[in-house]
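A note from the maintainers: we've had questions about how concatenated examples are separated. There is no special marker in the raw files; a new sequence line simply starts the next protein. For clarity in this README we add a label.
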Amino acid sequence: MPKPQYEYYCINTPTKLVKEVFGDINVYTQDAKSLLTKASGFINAYDFTLNPYRGCQYGCSYCYAAAFSPNPKMREDWGKWVIIKQNAAEILEKELERWCKKNPDKPPIIYMSSVTDPYQPIESKYELTRSLLDVMYPYRPILVIQTRSPIITRDIDILQRFKHLRVNMSIPTGSESVRRDFEPRSPSVKARINAITKVKQSIDSDKGFIPKVSITITPLLPTLEKDEAAFIEKLKIADRVVIQDFHPSQNRSLVATTREAAAEVKQKYAWWYDAEKLSYIRFKEKLMSHLPDVEIREGKDGFGYD
């Protein structure tokens, strides 16, 4: 990895940004005005969403979050930039204090994260998400963490302190070749399975709380027949598996939508997508047949803490 280089510049804002090169990713730091955003739409069962970063290094071809980029150029360059909310811990502390004064008997229900990955590679350097967990813990939130990153295992010492925690590990396919086509920057399927297994199995129930664990196969990508049985067997580590098909494709900039990049990759897997509804149903039936002790949920219904 090249040595980080720094430069200062301003983008039509009174707040200066710091730009750092992290591999081939442009990383910017900026003060945030708020951390907790009122939850709505798909995750309206929560009080707040919490996104430590804007942008995501994984840059998955299908990711709807690209629609919420600051401008069209950054939308086009999704996966090549990250904005770090450098004052995040300070702001979060203030916001949680306000919440508790108004709601002394109700812990906040928080979904982290909705438009970024809180454990993307740069978290290994900046530890921003870890600092936010430290801030949140005394307020006893009901917390769901959504990630595809093995870096989450670094924070098991903090995670086990949360009594009400669900960890959602995103694993859209059980085939490495499919993963490389749709999300080439993301961790391997094996690394994610190993990570969620470690989160579930390495906590002593006498010393901490074992979190609920979901594997979110969202969007449901093809899994090659030769990999399917072994993949489904590995899903037994979870207490819940969530499946969901692609968001509808739309040409609107601020809508959760499947990007054109993914639509192009889908053509390679015509054997699956030419009969997408049937492929979905068959895979769901196999999950239900082979995972009798695992809760199988679909779409929005699967993303709650419960």
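[label: protein 2]
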Amino acid sequence: MQTISTQQRPSISIAENLKVVAELRTLLGRNPVWHGSDGGKVVLSDSFRPSIIAVSGTGARAEETDVQRMDVLAGVTPEGAAVIVGPEGLSIIDGDARRPLMTLPPDIAQHRFDYAGTDRSGNVVFSTMEARGRTKVGGLYRANPNGSVTTLSAAFEMWSGMDWSVDGKYIYCADTGRQQVLRFRYDPTADRLEDRKVLATFPVETGRPDGVAVDESGCIWVAFWDGWRLIRLRPDGVVDREVILPIPRAVGLCFGGLDRKTLFISTARVRLPPDVLEAAPLSGALLALEVETPGLLRPPVDAGFSKFL
């Protein structure tokens, strides 16, 4: 959703336990992942630059690696190297080196790559949409270590962020186009998603649901595009908490830190008009919210891919 206009900034006070990790100025920061090596770092992708960015947990240093076209971050290896997915397939980025893991079928490679992540087993799951951004032509896919790709879902409005339940039996996602957070039954060996359930539907003035992250109590944190906020949902879809942000476009979420009580927030500044950028100069920054309930860490890319890593 690359709209120019945004919702009005809420009159509620900005969260006091929010901090700026790094003023990255990402155009579209997506898919942040925490890795605990060397004191900890957050790895994310800027889809519109396009690049992979690694930031230390304290924000003391940031490293950026250019990648081709609109590749997005799928996860990191156990050693902390970035794994990306895009038109050329899955690849490992380690420093300036790029090593291919697998290619994708031509019909998928022609799409625009939006979101990616790892399920509780370390399998790579990614979503796409048609390159010109038409609705109902994208899909959700699982890349299999034998080189095949499984289509888990197709013809959705716009599949955004994703995360899995504590036991890994459900996948949560934001259908940005329909203003909904969805839940599906998930089996890492099955060839489709089942038992679609709408957990929550939001009014337009709330913003559009985008990034998703789950904490160890099973609650679902949701970032909102053009909404200036995060919302925490209970597993039954009831709103549990709302956090107001100093930026309109929160995009990606991940938990990290030594105690897993830091919720990292990647943001965007793409196509924001000058008056909004003046009111929200931190647009594009990596933010962090301290929370009470530890979150679930994204598993490294491993599973059957371990023989290639």
